[in-house]
Amino acid sequence: xxxxxxxxxxxxxxxxxxxxxxxxxxxxxxxxxxxxxxxxxxxxxxxxxxxxxxxxxxxxxxxxxxxxxxxxxxxxxxxxxxxxxxxxxxxxxxxxxxxxxxxxxxxxxxxxxxxxxxxxxxxxxxxxxxxxxxxxxxxxxxxxxxxxxxxxxxxxxxxxxxxxxxxxxxxxxxxxxxxxxxxxxxxxxxxxxxxxxxxxxxxxxxxxxxxxxxxxxxxxxxxxxxxxxxxxxxxxxxxxxxxxxxxxxxxxxxxxxxxx
Length: 260
Description:
Layout: E1 2-3, E2 10-14, H1 18-23, H2 25-37, E3 40-43, H3 53-57, H4 61-75, E4 80-83, H5 86-99, H6 107-114, E5 117-119, H7 120-127, E6 130-132, E7 136-143, H8 147-153, H9 157-163, E8 167-171, H10 187-190, H11 192-208, E9 213-216, H12 219-231, E10 237-240, H13 241-245
Parallel strand pairs: 2-3, 2-4, 4-5, 7-8, 7-9, 9-10
Antiparallel strand pairs: 1-6
């Protein structure tokens, strides 16, 4: 892995995320490998829990605050907190400060914590200065810009930059790579018909790109799109970008046969 910035060791707390932990542990191992190759000391606190986003999106601020306090206490000792998810990183970085705004005990503490939070690929490129990865995959890929990562954290060029350095990869953009996939966490549960209409348009765009592999940085989006593609009997495979960048593509694709 080639870097262009300071690569002195940094203590990074890896926020694994619920969906990675429960459905796609390979992404967590891939994230750890990428961080270590970028010169980081990686720690995975066993006391970490959900970021609280489902409760927050449902209007349950009290329970969200209690969950957030657990997360902060588990991670605030590290130099950086990194998540392989734009939505979880967005929750930790953007919404935690809103949740504790005006709280005399927690506000400053939360601000200090949130300032250290980053999405995985943007951390690698923007903070650690990674310019290319040592990975190989013969595949035509397309990349979906997840809403939170793109709109809350500005993650757009970074994944494409690193993907372009993967030997054998050809990138074919969708017509609308930045359009929502229809997941939206609890939105997909509350408004199933609307969600299905949105993901139908998204899978049509994916297939029209001519790519054989769909990549993104959020497991929620990936599982939603993979499920729709499978129901449509599409041959397009789905993976988290970290798996490709780390050269860890031996596991079945998301939603494929044998996927956990």
